[in-house]
Amino acid sequence: MKIAISGKGGVGKTTIMALLASHLQKQGNEVLVIDADPSPHMAQALGFNNIDEITPIADMTALLVERSGKTAGSPFYQINPQVDDLLAKFMVEQNDIRLMVLGAIQVGDGGCACPENTVLRRLLTKLLLSPSQMVLLDMEAGVEHLGRGTIAGIDHLLIVVNPTRSSVRTALKIKKLAEDVKIPRISFIGNLVQNEDDEAFLSTFLNEPPAASYPESPAIKEAEREGRPIPAVAGQLDAISEKLTQYLLQ
Fold this sequence. Notes:
The chain is of the alpha/beta class.
């Protein structure tokens, strides 16, 4: 199964993805996480060692241009099928979770991330998975990635939403665009949900209840500030992750 996660900036999608990845792995699934956020933090969230030594795909500029099929002087990018070896080149593994970091433009006015997006789209469409293999894709915040089609081939999109009007507006826009590109399953995941009023707010303004809702966790906030892995301090959130896992595997 290929699962993507999106939402307004700052809603906690990386945190939710780290919790989900850890729980799926504990259930005996093979888990590959692809960090496609231009400001990648998944390696830290999952507790990977030697983060600075992880090579993002975006750093390999010449390789990306070659694989995206762009010819010199041309503004167009074409799909190049030769992406099979990228998994071996750029994938790192720790605690039975595999990770690839797409990376980002590193300088201001760096231009379009078209080669990265073309290669990512090709990787996702080529991956053929067994029932126990899970690909989790942490997308950039907002809606732009849906316009570029970089989540082609995704089975389920999770939209993380906080109980605020601005977060709900973005979540509904993401859902509309996801429906336009025909993603088979789309679900909302509440985060920083403290009480029944928050739950009622989300259910009312989303026109459906979230598939799962996570409260704010002081332990997770402290772990993030100290650079410790998020799943290791999840504790009371394990039951919520179990509910979400069972929902996804239905």
